[in-house]
Amino acid sequence: MSGEQQRPPSGEPGTTPPAGTGPGADPRTDPAAAAPPGARSFAVGAPLSQLRRPVPQVGDERQQAEAGTASSFYEQVGGHETFVKLVHEFYVRVAEDERFRALYPEDDLGPAEERLRMFLEQYWGGPTTYSERRGHPRLRMRHMPFPVDTWARETWLRHMRAALDTLELSPLHDGIIWDYFDRAAHAMVNRPG
Ligand code: HEM
Predict the structure, then answer these.
(1) Where are the domains of the chain?
(2) Closest C-alpha to ligand 1, atom 36
(3) How many Cβ atoms are within 10 Å of 160's Cβ, its own excluded?
(4) Is the CB of 114 under 6 A from ligand 1?
(5) pLDDT in tens, 75-108
(6) pTM of the entire structure?
């Protein structure tokens, strides 16, 4: 016995650092070293799209969101087909509501349906066809010729709520778009009453 403390043989239980925390893996500087067991770890400088929490989705859309490839709300809710359906369902209800229908000047609701659809697609990150054809939206100004009072606003919102229900979006996406419609409709009121 030399009296010197013997070094434990390498690999002895309790002395080998757990995977990912080897020499130089300081939790203060290395996020991987601080990650709890089972957690996903990310390299420093990873794109934000990899770090953000996945948006609740159904089917393929969810995988896209987790992979960070569903870049816009437009894509996340299903793109063109979703907006076609939403606006069509809305105008079906407008057509059936005689008093509300009277606000719309044209005999054919088709062009109005297309304008609203193009606008919403553009607003949520889809094609910019609306502005290419119609210029700056200036929605409040464009609504001035039509008497939008509290009744008109509530009726518009009621038909849009029913249209939105047909899409069965995730609660998160439904909440985001509904909140927008509610605020936009309030902003469009241009007559007392
Ligand atoms: C608050 C109740 C609302 C009423 C009563 C109303 C009514 C109308 C009417 C009568 C038109 C003319 C139809 C046409 O020829 O295009 C119109 C157009 C339009 N509305 Fe509304 N609207 C309302 C709210 C909204 C909201 C909240 C939005 C957007 C989120 C919106 C977006 C549009 C768009 C994009 C157009 C076509 C504008 C253009 O390019 O000429 N409206 N609306």
Answers:
(1) 75-187
(2) 116
(3) 23
(4) no
(5) 999 999 999 999 999 999 999 999 999 999 999 9
(6) 0.72
